[in-house]
Amino acid sequence: MQIRKLCILVCLIMFVASAQAEYQLDNDSSILNFISVKKNKIAETHSFGQLAGAVQNTGDASITISLVSVNTNIEIRDERLRKFLFETDIFPKAVVSTKLDMNQLSTLHSGDAIILQVPLSINLHGKTKVLDARLRVVRLRDNSLLVTTVKPILLNGFDFDLADGIQKLMELAKLPSISTAVPVSFSLVFKEQ
Questions:
Q1: Closest C-alpha among 139, 192, 189 to residue 25
Q2: In sequence order, what are the residues at sequence separation of 6 or more whose Cβ sits closer than 8 angstroms to the Cβ of residue 71?
Q3: Measured distance CA(173)–CA(186) in Å, rounded
Q4: What range defines the domain where residue 179 resides?
Q5: At 156, which CATH number?
Q6: What is the pLDDT of residues 94-139, one digit of tens each?
Q7: Which residues make beta-bridge pairs with 146?
């Protein structure tokens, strides 16, 4: 009887601990991509190399994106994005935050997935906008969380005062157009601490 009570107590402690866990973003296992479209028909995928973030035991989640780490696979374009679009000397980072339901996440076992509809607060270039997003959260074997976009999140450059920067990029590259609508997707791994 005592052994059974001890087993129940250990299981309860483990359940409470996992429900209250904090998670840190694993930059090496995570990616955030965005797509640019120029000349109305040429789409290219780009990414950021430095991401940081956490999911607190309260459900508060945030990701900080180092805009300096933009990677388009063309160095001169990276420099132009940093200088003229993102203005990284003034705005070196973007921050995305939301609130996750930790009670829902605590019920996930290894391999289980759940779809969450959440408001994302996006702070970019000194402006903040809240957009709805559908996220898939998967509990991994090591108890980490994999968080991915179900479909791309569409950012509009006008919402973040990026239109002048886009215009400057068009002039420098002698392009007739660069879309101000930018699809963003991500696959983020949060390791349990």
A1: 189
A2: 46, 47, 48, 49, 78
A3: 28
A4: 22-192
A5: 2.40.128.110
A6: 999 999 999 999 999 999 999 999 999 999 999 999 999 999 999 9
A7: 138, 189
